[in-house]
Amino acid sequence: MSTNSKYDLVVIGGGPAGYAAAIRAGQLGKKVACVEQERPGGTCLNWGCIPSKALLKSAELYNKIKHSEDFGITVKGLDFDFSKIIGRSRAVSSNMASGIGFLFKKNKVDHFTGVGTVSVPGMVEVTEGKDKGKILSTEKILIATGCKPRRLPDLEVDGERVMTSRQALEMAKQPKSIVIVGAGAIGAEFAYFLNAFGTKVTLVEMLDQVLPVEDHEVAAVVASEFKKQGIDCRVSTAVQNIKVAKNNVKMDLVKGDKSETITADSILLAIGVVANTEKLFSPRLKVALDRGYIKVDNNYESTVKGIYAAGDIIGPPWLAHVATYEAIQAVQGMFGHGQAKQVTDFPGCTYCLPQVASIGKTEKKLKEEGVAYKIGKFPFQASGKAVASMQSEGFVKLLVDEKYGEILGAHIVGADATEMIAEFGLAMKLEATAEEIHNTIHAHPTMSEAMMEAAASVFGEAIHI
Fold this sequence. Notes:
By secondary structure, this protein is of the alpha/beta class. It folds into 3 domains: 7-149 and 274-334, 3-Layer(bba) Sandwich (FAD/NAD(P)-binding domain); 162-271, FAD/NAD(P)-binding domain, CATH 3.50.50.60; 354-458, FAD/NAD-linked reductase, C-terminal dimerisation domain (Enolase-like, domain 1, 2-Layer Sandwich), CATH 3.30.390. It contains 13 helices and 24 strands. It has helices at 18-27, 42-47, 49-66, 82-106, 165-168, 185-196, 216-229, 320-334, 363-369, 384-388, 417-429, 434-438, 449-458, and strands at 7-12, 32-36, 109-113, 115-120, 123-128, 135-143, 147-149, 162-164, 177-181, 200-204, 232-234, 238-244, 249-255, 258-264, 266-269, 273-275, 289-290, 293-294, 307-309, 347-350, 356-360, 373-379, 395-401, 407-413. The strands form 6 sheets. Strands 1, 2, 3, 4, 5, 6 and 19 form a 7-stranded mixed β-sheet that branches. A 5-stranded parallel β-sheet has the order 8-15-9-10-11. The chain has a 5-stranded antiparallel β-sheet with strand order 20-21-24-23-22, sandwiched between helices. Helix 1 packs parallel to helix 8 and helix 3 (49-66) packs parallel to helix 6. The model has no long low-confidence stretch (mean pLDDT 96).
């Protein structure tokens, strides 16, 4: 067992929160170590955001080529190699992971491979992995171990018949049919991807709409487009009596008092996440948890002095960009570089087609809070760029405070939604009003013109509707 020289900060976890925290502390001139049980990048880079987007890009390209006749282009002999599609996705992750390793070296961050366990405040022991037995003495500790996919009790995940998103990202064989349980962002993205390549997809959601956290009108567009694509969407439906056989999975889909038994090659569980706290703390270390997540104060410090936490491990919204923001704020706060800021407004994105992006509050939330608001809405079917690109599905929807014109929420469903939402994010950060967006000249023809027109629509001044 070896002991390293003392660190200013030891970060446990190398995902979007962990690696960002370590790099930021390195930029501040601190002596930093990061303990990660796999390669740097965490779930997002290795088993989430990045590889899934590579898969979705392949699906998007395949779909475009299938419909190339609509653009006057004839393509013959179109085919795909599913294993190469998966392989490209894994290669993208590997390439990005090596980039994190370079950034660690650039910022003088020591990287240890293994499971980090906090024995007592100020000490982290690497208990498993390549660097097992190393003890890191430190002034401060930041926990950034994130979450892992939630599983169902008594249902073994074997990677073929039963999968979570992690196994799905490296599936060796494309299933001919699949039931995806959970129609949040992960479920919707896998539904789009697999359906694009011919898998018969049944997407099941217990709540009353796909993408339950999104605006109800946005969810309706996605459900409609999914149906056109051939995805069987079941909402207000529970999955029960799952029985795994050698060659298939059988289950009951229950909606109200009606039950239907269906069989598929595989089942994919996209039912949320649970906090990664296993083997994290010694039994004598009493760090307070809230529903399994580490409880922190406004400075991201836990109930044990000197131990901080950021990212998914402190609870929802479980988004990589939120995790990065929190971790950087925690580091800057703990080392006296300004007051640590809390997350207020943040964009949420789903990368199926049509894409979905939102920031701020939904209509449902504003109604619950009794807030008086106005709506500005512009359909992409009235956008010259969208029609020319054959991407006219969806709309931009703006929710604005009735009295002052403050932007309370923005919701986009359609092509490039995940890129365009940044404008509304910046507007809300700068406290811009809908009127100021309306009076900002947007280039023509662009998809982003729809944002200007939606703002104009708040005042009944949209030109193209």
